[in-house]
Design a protein that fits this description.
Layout (H helix, E strand, L loop, with lengths): L1 H12 L4 H10 L12 H13 L3 H27 L1 H13 L1 H6 L6 H21 L4 H13 L6 H13 L10 H13 L1 H9 L3 H11 L7 H14 L1 H21 L2 H20 L14 H11 L9 H27 L16 H14 L4 E4 L2 H10 L6 E3 L21 E6 L8 H4 E14 L2 E14 L1 H7 L5 H8 L3
Parallel strand pairs: 1-2, 1-3
Antiparallel strand pairs: 3-5, 4-5
Length: 491
């Protein structure tokens, strides 16, 4: 409970990350799906905003609630498969993992992805323990909701198929109508994503699945980087125990054909194998493995539990205590730094959450001084942060990647009657063809986003007037979602 209250406090008092601000834009104009991901994160944010308003805690409410539900789901699942002793340790390890602890504050598509991955595993464990085929309907429901969360959850289906095929005793389920009904439920729940893609040239599928076939040079350094990220974000001792636990799972499947061990292993290995191959050619972002962390906590618990232990008896208690202690320490340092940075630096990943309110005030001052109606930018994170922090009557106009904003309504002609103040990071080149698309592009110098007197990022600022041709007119016909929502209320 203390941990949950701490997360809720941090969720309410820390500013939004760039991605959170971007997903907030989705939530203010909910759609069937979006360019980058399926729609679940937007729907959850919209629900939180409906309860607590357009505030950091309202936007992150689903993350706080999930941080309460997730440990219960993990405990029940592991208890059914391996007993209460393993389950208690698994929950303790999961709560000590920095990635899962931070995930209880920040809301991204990984949050519902982890939740529904876990709920699907729970339904499978209930099926295994009870033999009741009706649990296939719950499996279909949760796996379908997972597919509405993130495309990564396709690997849930791969794990289920491995479990079904891997043991002859499981083949009987193929004769159960509930299995096929569950599969149909899962498929039907993906229809919003399929419909959106069919209406937008299959753009989201091409963006995400294009990574699979992208021609990139062999570079094992990416895999080493991914392993390093896992060790840090799982906490080093817990990560080592998880690897030992994976070894015990493999042994249990190979020697005893243990169905519980196979169920847990099958939930892990398809995604691990995919990203292992991916990491030989391209970067694996640390959050991509997030759905596996609860199951890896269970594997770590297996490594130190008497019936399954791969750690010597003398080391079990010591490694458990040390693993939990180090994990809690790392988590505490990360959360403390997010709330009150130990060192203010532009290279700090949490710097994206700082200085936006003051920066937006300065941008709005410049806008008014130069008589511009709107603020424009060519990067989605700047558009999202400014949309959140600027006054609601000021539209933010993204000038490229129109599919990112396909869900937003167009501006009226009156709101496009004067210029826009263009803002872009100094290190990025100006949007290609900017001078060809506007009659007047007047550089105004730079503005700095800072925190406690330390500069975090510098931005070029320019005045844009007189859009030329249909392309520029199209670019200026997308408002930010905050403006669209307020206009819809008649404010």
């Amino acid at each position: 409970m203390v941990s949950a209250l701490l997360r809720a406090t941090l969720a309410a008092t820390t500013e939004l990350s760039d991605d959170e601000a971007y997903y907030r834009l989705w939530a203010l104009a909910p759609a069937l799906s979006y360019l980058d991901h399926p729609p679940m994160v937007a729907w959850l944010i919209a629900a939180g905003q409906g309860i607590l308003g357009d505030t950091p805690l309202g936007i992150r409410l689903a993350a706080v609630v999930t941080s309460l539900v997730g440990p219960l789901v993990l405990w029940r699942t592991v208890s059914l498969l391996f007993g209460a002793d393993v389950a208690q340790r698994a929950v303790a390890f999961a709560l000590a993992m920095p990635l899962l602890s931070v995930g209880g504050i920040i809301i991204t598509p990984d949050l519902p992805s982890v939740l529904f991955w876990g709920l699907t595993g729970w339904a499978m464990a209930e099926l295994y323990a009870s033999g009741n085929p009706n649990w296939w309907l719950a499996v279909g429901l949760f796996s379908g909701l997972g597919l509405l969360s993130k495309y990564t959850n396709l690997f849930v289906g791969a794990g289920i198929l491995i479990w079904l095929i891997g043991l002859k005793a499981n083949w009987r389920w193929f004769r159960s109508w509930q299995l096929w009904a569950g599969a149909a439920i899962s498929a039907l729940l993906t229809l919003p994503v399929i419909v959106w893609n069919s209406q937008h040239g299959w753009a989201s599928f091409a963006k995400q699945f294009g990574r699979v076939v992208r021609d990139q040079a062999f570079s094992p350094a990416y895999l080493l980087e991914a392993v390093g990220s896992f060790v840090l974000l799982a906490s080093p001792i817990i990560a080592a125990l998880a690897l030992l636990g994976l070894g015990s799972l493999i042994a249990a499947v190979a020697k005893r054909r243990d169905p519980a061990a196979l169920l847990l292993a099958a939930s892990l290995f398809p995604l691990l194998l995919y990203f292992g191959v991916h990491g030989l050619h391209a970067r694996v972002q640390p959050n991509w493995l997030a759905p596996l962390y609860p199951a890896l906590a269970a594997a770590a618990a297996l490594a130190v539990t008497a019936r399954h232990a791969t750690v010597a008896v003398a080391l079990r208690r010591r490694s458990t205590g040390a693993g939990l202690g180090l994990g809690v320490l790392l988590t505490g340092l990360i959360l403390a730094h997010a709330a009150h940075p130990l060192l203010v630096s532009a290279k700090d990943p949490t710097s994206q959450m700082r200085g936006w309110r003051e920066f937006a005030l300065e941008i709005d001052r410049l806008r008014r001084v130069h008589g511009a109606c709107a603020v424009a930018t060519s990067h989605y994170t700047i558009a999202a942060q400014l949309a959140y922090h600027l006054p609601t009557q000021v539209p933010v106009l993204p000038l490229n990647e129109p599919l990112r904003y396909a869900h937003l309504p167009p501006l009226g002609a009156a709101e496009l009657g004067c210029g826009a103040l263009y803002v872009e990071l100094e290190r990025r080149p100006l949007l290609a063809g900017l001078n060809a698309r506007f009659a007047w592009v007047l550089p105004l110098g730079t503005a700095t986003r800072s925190h406690k007197g330390r500069g975090l990022a510098r931005y070029n600022v320019a005045l844009l007037e007189g859009p030329r041709g249909p392309e520029a007119s199209r670019d200026l016909r997308r408002a930010n979602a905050q403006h669209a929502r307020e206009a819809g209320r008649g404010e």
